[in-house]
Amino acid sequence: MIIKLFQLEKINKNDFNFYLFYGENEGLKNETINKFFNLEKSKNIFRYEEKELLENKDNFFDSILSKSLFENEKLIIISRVTDKIVDFIDQIIEKEIDDIKIILNSRILEKKSKIRSLFEKNKKTISLAFYADTSLSLANIANNFFKEKKILISQDKINLLIERSRGDRQNLNNELSKIESFLLNKKNISIDEIMELTNLAENYNISELVDSCLSRNMRKTANILNENNFSTEDCIQITRTLLIKLKRLQKLFFEINNNKSADEAISIFKPPIFWKDKEVVKSQIKNWTLNKTEDLIYKTNEIELLVKKNSSNGINIVSDFIISQSDRSNN
Questions:
Q1: How far apart are the C-alpha atoms of 72 and 134, rounded to whole Å?
Q2: Cα 188 from chain centroid?
Q3: Are strands 45-49 and 74-79 parallel, antiparallel or unpaired?
Q4: What is 82-109 written as a DSSP string?
Q5: Which pLDDT score is estimated for 70?
Q6: How far is the CA of 83 from the CAs of 20, 67, 115, 211, 292, in angstroms?
């Protein structure tokens, strides 16, 4: 069944267990999922990648069929969904399993998409498209943020933030979080400070790729490499981003070796590590040591030189390197 976003709040959640959220606006999707399904208070939340689920169908069935007297309703979020999963999801829908809610999160789907067609035609399922934000809607988000913080800001600065978020409210909210931390003891921010603090939106996938690699999440690393058309120019950006995050990790290990806990080292780090990144950084600390980090800094510099000498094969060189470093068995 097709619905609009404003209609979602009017439906009875007890009448629907299956939801397809598709489109390019990841920020609005996340806001909607958090609000509509009350994620802050939900305890039984399970997250899967489509590829991970398809490789472990039996385990997934066991998990949704198993019940406990002490468990509330399960919320299952499946990311990076494509038509490959349509038959499997159709089987689950037909079983009419109680006490689960399943959200499929997909990028843009064409009208002929099988998974989209399944959810649009079935009266027991919800299909909801999330279109890109307009400049006006992003400006409203930014203006409301600064108004709430009682900070005067010019339209030029708002426009710069919108430009650097590339039409994605998730990117914009990430940058506003950084600015909020920066403005703890200040009431204004300059254009230059915004330029220094914020990322261009195209760097987000590269940052996520590097974070997944350093967290030794090989499956997610491979998914990001497969789903993005990184160019030859991106290869140097990937190695530079990896070096920046490795040097941050190196400094954290220096603090930890001075009898500080990981939490203490992260909390005093300069520039600040923002709250949304802290769990990722903790995972990286668990997967590396100071010696291994310094060794990888050396190897990354070598890879960057190799890419510059073999630019036509750069993406293959970098991809193989990133995948090998994300492998937990590569110690």
A1: 38
A2: 29
A3: parallel
A4: -GGGHHHHHHHHHHT-SSEEEEEEES--
A5: 47
A6: 12, 29, 5, 28, 40
Within the chain, all domains assigned CATH 3.40.50.300 are found at 5-130
From the list 106, 157, 158, the residue with the least C-alpha distance to 137 is 158
Q: How far apart are CA 53 and CA 48, in angstroms?
A: 6
Rounded CA gap, 2 and 66, in Å? 30
- Strands of the sheet containing 100-106, edge to edge, are 45-49, 74-79, 100-106, 18-23, 125-130
> Could you give the CA distance from residue 316 to residue 238 in angstroms, rounded to a whole number?
12
**Rounded-to-integer distance, Cα 209 and Cα 242, Å:** 9
Q: Which amino acid is at 121?
A: K
The pTM score is 0.60
Place of tokens 């009898």: 259
CATH architecture of 135-197: Orthogonal Bundle (1.10)
CB atoms within 10 A of CB 201: 18
CATH of domain 5-130: 3.40.50.300
Q: Going residue by residue through the chain (331 aa), what tens digit of pLDDT does each one get?
A: 999 999 998 998 889 999 999 998 888 998 899 889 887 666 688 888 888 889 888 888 887 777 654 466 788 999 889 999 999 999 999 888 878 899 999 988 999 999 999 999 999 999 999 988 888 999 999 999 999 988 888 998 898 888 777 667 888 888 888 888 888 777 788 888 887 777 655 565 788 899 999 999 998 898 888 877 787 778 988 999 999 899 999 999 999 998 889 999 998 888 778 777 889 999 999 999 999 999 999 999 999 999 988 888 898 999 999 999 998 776 6
Q: What are phi and psi of 250, to 5 degrees?
A: -60, -45
**Check whether domain 203-326 has CATH 1.10.240.10, yes or no:** no
* 8 A C-beta contact, residue 127 and residue 2: yes
Cα 36 → chain centroid: 19
d(CA 102, CA 74): 8
